[in-house]
From TrEMBL:
It holds the Pfam family HSP33. Gene3D superfamilies: Hsp33 domain, HSP33 redox switch-like. Keywords: Chaperone, Cytoplasm, Disulfide bond, Redox-active center, Zinc. SUPFAM superfamilies: Hsp33 domain, HSP33 redox switch-like. This is 33 kDa chaperonin. The keyword Zinc applies. GO terms for cellular component: cytoplasm. It comes from Paramagnetospirillum caucaseum. One of its GO terms (biological process) is protein refolding.
């Protein structure tokens, strides 16, 4: 399955949405770069799908990060998406504690993440203040936590459906997130409606969204356009240009070297091995950046 986000509008522009689908990127991150247990990988796949659909609904030039942190067996989930479409992700977990989670609860946020928070961050560089929104982890899925964020933050009315399919029968990972938002009357192409008309349009869009099945969201036979047509063909559906995504890490030897050079010399020397080598492994892509202590001690 290709990695894309497809924007669309319905109800004459009163409701806008995004359908994010990930496949190849998941296989790279969850299959090639990491070897997480399936429950952890599935949570991280959902995090990536939600990050993709949320990031592409915003106007920014930089990095959008979705992070879940808790006191459970899975202590951290991080996925970030650049404005250019680069996606990366990683997780931290305690294998011993994870083994004690009953099989029936291994898709549950309370059982895996425990108590904690879900954070949304937009970073547009050092010249711009970072935007961050935080919500407590409430609900059985990350999808539910994201819904709670929009409800509590009093932003646009928002509805989200998400689905993850682990590898099976020769197929790789697949994940999808479908989000709709109610546009303020008169904003952009949104029509100016009477209050009752606006409520009815949003209610209908939300009901139709709820009718989509998880199987449809991740069915590689169905194109994103076909999924949307099944749901909204009678609701003035307009589909816009798709945005391509890809698995790509931003780490580099230059960045790692700059970080090491910014540290006190004794701290750098303390992490060198007996041969004077320092190996820094990227948490996201697992790439090793190897330095000689001697090259860091001389400009």
């Amino acid at each position: 399955m290709t990695d894309t986000v497809l924007p669309f509008s319905v109800m004459g522009g009163a409701v806008r949405g995004r359908l994010a689908r990930l496949g190849d990127a998941l296989d790279t991150i969850l299959g090639d770069q990491h070897a997480y247990p399936v429950p952890v990988a599935a949570l991280l796949a959902e995090t990536m799908a939600l990050a993709a659909v949320l990031a592409t609904s915003m106007k920014f030039d930089g990095i959008f990060t979705l992070q879940a942190q808790g006191d459970g067996p899975v202590s951290l989930l991080v996925a970030d998406v650049t404005s250019g479409g680069d996606v990366r992700a990683h997780a931290r977990f305690d294998a011993a504690r994870l083994d004690k989670v009953p099989a029936a609860a291994r898709a549950s946020v309370p059982a895996l993440l425990g108590k904690g928070y879900l954070a949304f961050t937009v970073d547009q560089g050092p010249e711009t203040d970072r935007y961050q929104g935080i919500v407590e982890l409430e609900g059985p899925t990350l999808e539910d936590c994201a819904r709670a964020y929009f409800k509590q933050s009093e932003q646009l009315d928002t509805a989200i459906e998400a689905m993850v399919r682990p590898p099976a029968d020769g197929r790789g990972w697949a994940a999808a997130a479908l989000m709709i938002q109610r546009m303020p009357a008169g904003s952009g192409s949104a029509p100016i409606l009477l209050a009752e008309e606006g409520e009815e349009s949003w209610r209908r869009a939300e009901i139709l969204l709820g009718s989509v099945t998880g199987a449809e969201l991740v069915d590689s036979v169905l194109t994103p356009e076909q999924v949307l047509y099944r749901l909204y063909h009678a609701e003035q559906l307009v589909v816009f240009e798709a945005k391509a995504l890809r698995a790509r890490c931003r780490c580099s030897r230059t960045k790692v070297e700059a970080t090491l050079r910014s540290l006190p010399a004794d701290e750098v020397a303390a992490v060198a091995d007996g041969d004077g080598r320092i190996v820094v492994t990227c948490e996201f892509c697992r790439a090793d950046h190897v330095f000689r202590l001697s090259e860091l001690q001389h400009s």
